[in-house]
Amino acid sequence: MIKILVSDPLSEEGLKILKEVKDFHTDVISDLTPEKLKEIIGGYDALIVRSATKVTKEIIAAASALKVIGRAGVGLDNVDLAAATQKGVIVMNTPGGNTISTAEHTVSMILSLSRNIPQANASMKKGEWKRSKFMGVEVYNKILGIVGFGRIGSEVAKRCLAAGMKILAYDPFLSKEVAEGLGVEVVELKDLFSRSDYITVHTPLTDETRHLISTKEISLMKKGVRLINCARGGIIDESALIEAVKSGKVAGAAFDVFEKEPLSADSELLKLENVILTPHLGASTEEAQVNVAVEVAEIVRDALLGKGIRNAANYPCLEAEVCKILDPYINLAEKIGLFCGQLVEGRFGQVNINYGGEINQYDLSPLTMAMIKGLLSPSLQETVNFINATSLAAERGIRIKESKLSKEHEFVTLIELQVKTDKEELKISGTLSSNKKPRIVKINDYYMEASPQGYMLVMQNMDVPGIIGGIGTLLGKHNINIAAMTFGRDTPGGKAISVLNIDTPVSPEILEKIRKTENILGVKVIRI
User: Fold this and answer.
1) Helices and strands: H and E segment counts in the chain
2) Domain range spanning residue 118?
3) CATH, residue 39
4) Is the pTM of this model over 0.85?
5) Residue 402 within any structural domain of the chain
6) Catalytic residue positions?
């Protein structure tokens, strides 16, 4: 008998799918304390959660029989993915279940902002009749800027195009051809900020997107712009927004998500009449709750019955014996993708993946999945997984070509990732060391041996004496320790690339000092 624990409330439609399988025994026990969950988890083969249950490494360590964790929803911040992966537990989520509900909530926010509907309703409930106070604006012929054009962003676009709005989109993975086919104009962020009447964000929250819209960005916008956030709290700087609303620069805002949830009762946002707030309702529709419940039940059922794995966040390979062989190469491929995805500039177009050496005797699709997942993860975060990575790339018009290298190489096995964007072409090559550890061995034509792990400082510089020493001194003054370093150059005294593994992150201020250092041509911090 296969035992399944559902530790958060799940729609009956999802539970029915599990209960119909005669070999399954399903227990629904919500409101478990961490101690109680740890006590009982050892008896279960699968665990299904929403956001309330925290699946920590301690819980996973106690889960002696656990094979699958299913998350009914998108985010995986409540699941220790690393601990699950180390123990061989498959973790799956449901990234598409709330797409329509969140898109519709966004459109509702846009219309509510335009016609002051919540404020007028509140006034009416007080017995007032103040028509002139709630003069609105039409959305027809207005420009909507969409930051992040994934599934939700594209659904918002469809609905707003039908309302007669003009759509600008910014997404580093969206090709102009795909966008134009939808009637959408692809632009850079600065253009989107300066031209839009409404701006809505639909990106994950990452180090790069945190406070993506703050004082500087708002200063680029039209006076009277309206801002909407139904994605993740923190993408729009709440303090900067409050000041911009008070000054009149921003005519109104609508937030469903906040930097700290639940929103504090003394938040300044609550005092602003032209700011509309809802308590994280993006996925709160009957249909969305049913969709994610059905989807998580189906993927957990199929995984347990050996009928295939879908939406896996940590499991690109299906056959156990082959996985043992491919696992270090899958790890290498994902890290090459992560490294490249943070280093490359511009909008993705063509992605070429080349495999050489011993690895060519195996099915290479798990490696390609892992590499594309790594490439997209810096921007798409938890919405991309091993299984959906290539389809997400295709949706955005990114062309992927996989090839096997026939000529002999100086490496027993070589994996190359070549990305062409509208700004540059970047090639990252990697292999495994003798102890099966991943190594970056070339960046474009620069040979090196870098370990893709932790924080990495990647610098383009002139090959002159004292560069590394000067940067080391600067980092040392700020208590940033260098764990390892490598560099490659084209010719003595020419251009070079230096890669430093560092123990702690580099602040934007220190990064700017490095950038302004003589003979430094460019610098980026990579996190693997």
Assistant:
1) 17, 22
2) 99-277
3) 3.40.50.720
4) no
5) no
6) 232, 261, 280
